[in-house]
Specification:
Elements: H1 8-15, H2 21-38, H3 49-62, H4 65-69, E1 78-82, H5 90-96, E2 101-105, H6 109-122, E3 127-130, H7 134-137, E4 147-153, H8 158-165, E5 169-179, H9 184-197, E6 199-208, E7 215-223, H10 237-240
Parallel strand pairs: 1-2, 1-4, 2-3, 4-5
Antiparallel strand pairs: 5-7, 6-7
Helix pairs in contact: 2-5, 2-6, 8-9
The structure holds S-adenosylmethionine.
Amino acid sequence: MDMLPSYGDRWQSTLYWQPSDRQQQSFQLLYDAVLAANQQVNLTRITTPEDFWEKHLWDSLQGVALWLSEGASADALKVVDVGTGGGFPGLPVALVFPHWAIALLDATRKKLVALETVCETLGIANVSFLPQRAEQVAHQPIHRESYDLALLRAVGPVNTCAEYALPLLNLGGQAILYRGQWSAEEEAGLTAILPRLGGKLSEVRSQTTPITQGVRHNVVLTKVERTPDKFPRLPGIPSKTPLA
Ligand SMILES: C[S@@+](CC[C@H](N)C(=O)[O-])C[C@H]1O[C@@H](n2cnc3c(N)ncnc32)[C@H](O)[C@@H]1O
């Protein structure tokens, strides 16, 4: 079994937060369980201890660093991780915020079946599973406009992500879009379509990963008006023809 580095100083200096011993242990268990599941289903190509620490654990948690820096939020947030894949960013966030209810949503059912096993192994109880497309889930009354926070990492063009996320958020809810590079053109294109979805751009935060100095941007959207019923469009359309 490979041991994850703890990198206490790097958590502290880049996220202003130091995981407890218990959280460190749960990260190790998560690493072991995801790698075990990865033998059956392709969940992630990021498998070395250092890469897993930086590109999955640190990166997943830096997106919610605002909340981390203020101390774990006492609010019981309802969160959806759209296109969770191997469970990122949702699973590290579920471990650190056990009082948040996190729905892991992904169109690939077998990935979610594997993640259910991971969660059973770790005893993660604050997670639910939505093996469907975001375009379908967002039209179901039980899910539409019902989440406080949406997380989306590596799920396609930014305007596609906005069309998936905003219909799922309640008024005042926020989406954190985990991006790598970020350009003025992308920002202008996003800002132009957000009013149609009832959203606004609240913030773009820039980060550098602490080991390999990779570029990260978190694009934070806020739901300011109800999203018209026609969004998201039919399955496949938001990715094939992003709003422009
Ligand atoms: C590149 S993976 C990213 C996984 C994870 N978020 C990460 O950053 O490691 C993209 C995932 O999004 C899922 N996905 C893409 N479009 C989707 C949609 N419209 N609805 C639900 N899941 C979707 C895919 O099945 C895939 O597992």
